[in-house]
Amino acid sequence: MPRPSLKDQRSHEILDAYLTCVARFGLEGATQARIADEADVKRPLLRHYLGNKDEMITALAEYVIAGFTASLDGLRQALPDTATPSDLVDTLFSEDSGTDPRLMLAYQALVTTVPDRPDLRKGLMDSLTDFFDVVEAILRRAAPMAPDASIRAATQGISAIFVSMDALSPLDPPEAWRAELKLAASLLASTLEAKV
Question: Is the Cα torsion angle 134, 139, 144, 145 positive or negative in sign?
């Protein structure tokens, strides 16, 4: 397998720094000076590697979506075909779930730009839909007799609970909140398990 080029490696490092800055300061607060400082590069190199501001935002969106895709692949691999809704909740809310809260924070920041950047909508929606599809497939497989409306409602609820965990991360909430969010998702999942 060929080694990644220096440009690809450096672009990845700069995108990771951009992700950190957006998670910390929001999209508008992720200035080129902050990104360059975080990436330990000179500001002119940002343009060289990622392009102008619009190209940087597009590159960040692609980076975030790729990060979600990798997380989803990990979720699929972690859950066997016999996974129950409780298994899903345990995996999503485990301490070592491998999710990077920066991804969700950057995703939310990118969502706010969609009115001005409608070109981002499809990729962001597709990424979220893929997550819903994975959750729904596990729930549907585990509770085949449950009504479609119940499956979809549980999918939305568990997904929203999971997303809120990362969305709250800048607050450094009490650890009990994580346990409470997991319990809320478990209670929702248990409504389906009762219909099996």
Answer: negative
